[in-house]
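Hello forum,

I keep getting stuck at the same step: I have a sequence, I want structure tokens, and every attempt I make locally crashes halfway through. Rather than fight my setup again tonight, could one of you with a working pipeline run this one for me? It's a single chain of 477 residues.
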Amino acid sequence: MRQLVKAVQSKRSGALQSESSSAGFFRGIRFRLVSFVLSLLVVTTFSVSFIVVQILDSSLLDSLVKRGSAITQAAAVPAGFSLLENDRLALDNLVAQIKASQEELVYVAILDLEKNILAHDRLDRVGEQLPSLTGESIAHAHDVAIVRGQYEGGDSFEFRRPIYFADQHVGSVVVAVSASKLMASKALAHRQIFTVATFVTILALLGAILISMIFTRPIERLADGVSRLQKDEYVEDVPVRSRNELGMLIRNFNKMARTIQKQKTSLQGYAEELESSYNDIVRILAAALDARDNYTYGHSARVAHFAIAVAERLEFTKEELKELEMGCLLHDIGKIHVRDAVLNKQCGLDQKESLEISQHPLRGAQILEIAPSLHKYIPGVKHHHERFDGTGYPDQLSGDEIPVHAQILALADTYDAMTSSRPYRKGLSQERAIAEIRRCSGSQFNPKLAEIFIDIVPVVSARLVDDRLPLEALCVS
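Reply #2:
Ran it on my machine without issues. Output:
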């Protein structure tokens, strides 16, 4: 600034002296240093902003795609069975439950092989054809066709997944998810990031005019913060050691970093919403499976309550509790392959029917193998009928060879089965069921887990009596 003032003063004394002073300023090291630092800050700021915008856009789209794929995947299994049985009521019920569980769903439909609507959340659409949504096609994920387009004036993503049952293509499940909420968040994030980036650039221009070698270290700290931000690492506030424009620049960089980290937290919130939606779909699927058996409705939820109570005594982590609960809700998913006539038989099962029932752990494991995200539930589902003495099925595991989730699940499953009434027998009382658990301790059940289970039975049973605790409710929030 002093050089600029001197240049103005020298202009009054003569044109030659003025030209010489101006040329000296533009050739000076300060101008070159200011130009270099300013260019670096502008490029860095907008590069970081561009990278963050790309990350946000990709994450938001990935979140929506995962949600839509999870919904269609969860719906495909029960829909396939209902299509094979030509159970239109079950299809209507499935569509209604899925639509009610997700407020962002635009429509849900089950189609036959000719794209005729067999079930739709709008009943007046049944019987019509449902052509694919016209718009931009997104890369397929796990056999799901994804198209982004306009539906009734709104931006939507349509997910189409073929339904296979017993390796036979029987139809398709179609779900359209509104993109309005996510796109609004995306637009807001863009405005905030580019507003802050522009503001930082303006301050960089003002600060760069007064910059000198003594500001090298603050610039290095700022560049380090930008580098960590670009690598998606946590960025602490860069220390502000001056009150001039450079200090203001650093403060606004810290503000931008906090804004970006806030957006990262928002993305984590979307991930939690996705997990919540996933849990809801699993709960709906478990309820739908239990509803096939007129005498065991709510069985999976009751099993989950007892199992969680045991796991809490064992001081499972929150994530372990969630994993155990989902395994409980899915433990009988293999029974989708069991005929209704066998499930609801009014008397004891013959040898062939017993064999059919005994295949459900393996069938359940095969179903869960379809989705990598469900693989962690396979041990509990596959081995919940193993016995501690090694005489169970399907793999005759014994002792600690049996996964701990399966050991806990076996106790809860057996107890609820004993206390549930069937057409051919009355359910046991709590006292008799506990006595049976104690009798089978060491042979069918892990003795230590059996003692814990016996201890928690009265408490959990009291919570379940008279429906004071909804059977469909999740145990772990």
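The domain at 75-183 is CATH 3.30.450.20 (Beta-Lactamase). If your local run keeps crashing, start a new thread with the error log.
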